[in-house]
Design a protein that fits this description.
105 residues, Oxidized Rhodanese, domain 1
């Protein structure tokens, strides 16, 4: 299995919540409608269908979140292939118990 699949690091939602004080870069890959209903404060909405156009800083660690952890895992894998340092958030927003913000920012 070595060399074929590079594993994607992951954290659970409690670990991400503890990391918030460091102001991590969080990509929320859910639809704009899902994002508006409630998202992690500071998360940037980059919907799954637009992720190919994402042009962020490659030296910054990216935490990728979706609703359940499935879309974010796919996105994290894709971004890792492009040279980004990525961390998948297991359980996604369905497991998030921290503060959420509604709206578009």
């Amino acid at each position: 299995m070595f060399g074929l699949f590079k594993s994607i690091p992951s954290v659970n939602t409690a670990q991400l919540e503890a990391e918030l004080r460091n102001k991590p870069m969080i990509l929320d890959v859910r639809t704009p409608g899902e994002y508006r209903v409630g998202h992690i404060p500071g998360a940037k909405n980059v919907p799954l269908n637009t992720i190919e156009q994402y042009q962020g800083k490659k030296q910054a660690k990216l935490y990728v979140v979706c609703q359940s952890g499935m879309r974010s895992k796919r996105v994290a894998s894709s971004l890792k292939k492009k040279g980004y340092e990525v961390v998948n958030v297991r359980g996604g927003m369905s497991q998030w118990s921290g503060h959420v913000r509604g709206g578009t920012n």
